[in-house]
Amino acid sequence: MGKFKKNSGGGTPAISTASLPDIVFMLLFFFMVTTVMREVTILVDNQKPFATEIKKLEKKNLVTYIYVGKPKKNLQAQVGTEPRIQLNDAFARLGEIQQYVIEERNAINEAERPLMTVSIKADEKVKMGLVSDIKQELRKAEALKINYSTRKGEVFGEL
C-alpha cells in the first residue's frame, strides 16, 4: 500500500486575479449599454397635473416632447416669469412648433412616421389657452397624435 503524506506547510493558495480584467470590462460594458443619458435639460417648471385614467406610451423613441411651464428660478431674471414653451434644449415661440415637428418627423424612419406622437408636458398651472394654441400649431404640422403627460392620482383642489 501507498503512503499518504499530510501537506501541512502549504496554507491556502493565493486567489487568482487573471479573470479580474474580464469581469471589470463585462460590468463596464453592461452599465454602458443599460444607462440612459438625459437627452434634454428641462428649463421650465414641470409639475404635471393629476389624472385618473392614464396609459403608458408604447414606443418612446417615436415620442416628441413639448415642455410648457414657467422658467426655472435661475432663468427668470433673463426670460421672465410668464409660461414658456421649450423644444429640445431651448425656449421657442408658438410659430416655431410647426417646423420643429416637421424636423422631428423627418428624423424618424419613414415607415414609423405615422406612429409619431407629440407629448405635451405642461405644468399644472399653465393656462389652457396656451395649450390650445400649441394644439393649433400641431394641427398645422399635421401632428394629430397628441398625448398629455400626467401623473396618476385623484384630482384635488378647486376646479
UniProtKB/TrEMBL annotation:
An example Gene Ontology CC term for this record: plasma membrane
Entry's transmembrane regions: 12-33
Membrane topology value: Single-pass membrane protein; Single-pass type II membrane protein
Statement: the UniProt record of this protein carries the keyword Protein transport: yes
Family, similarity comment: Belongs to the ExbD/TolR family.
Keyword entries, A-Z: Cell membrane, Membrane, Protein transport, Transmembrane, Transmembrane helix, Transport
Protein name: Biopolymer transport protein
GO BP, one annotated term: protein transport
Organism superkingdom: Bacteria
Compartments (UniProt record): Cell membrane
Organism encoding this protein: Owenweeksia hongkongensis (strain DSM 17368 / CIP 108786 / JCM 12287 / NRRL B-23963 / UST20020801)
Gene Ontology molecular functions: transmembrane transporter activity
InterPro entries named in the record: ExbD (IPR003400)
